[in-house]
Amino acid sequence: xxxxxxxxxxxxxxxxxxxxxxxxxxxxxxxxxxxxxxxxxxxxxxxxxxxxxxxxxxxxxxxxxxxxxxxxxxxxxxxxxxxxxxxxxxxxxxxxxxxxxxxxxxxxxxxxxxxxxxxxxxxxxxxxxx
Length: 130
Prior knowledge:
Elements: H1 3-10, H2 14-30, E1 35-39, E2 42-47, E3 50-57, E4 62-66, E5 79-80, E6 87-91, H3 99-111
Antiparallel strand pairs: 1-2, 2-3, 3-4, 4-6, 5-6
Helix pairs in contact: 1-2, 2-3
């Protein structure tokens, strides 16, 4: 696990740390070719500089977000962005994390991508990469 992401997880309560450790390990194991770092204060994984998946500790839960998640057509990713193509799910307990679902979403995140890397250059317009 990236040391900065480990440090991020280590600052959380035991319950939230367990969720984040499971998420990070599963993401790392399934997208081991990606770059990952703390970006805008949260752990994020990138493919060719394009953000794919990340998580953050919110007031009431740990939010797992996929930048292109609305295109996955997955009911569980029910927290949907209004302006872009992101979708997310919130967790309050490590037992809520279904690793089979997570692995499927990670596979889709590799195959279905919207170009967030160049969104500023395109003045807020997203184009589909894959």
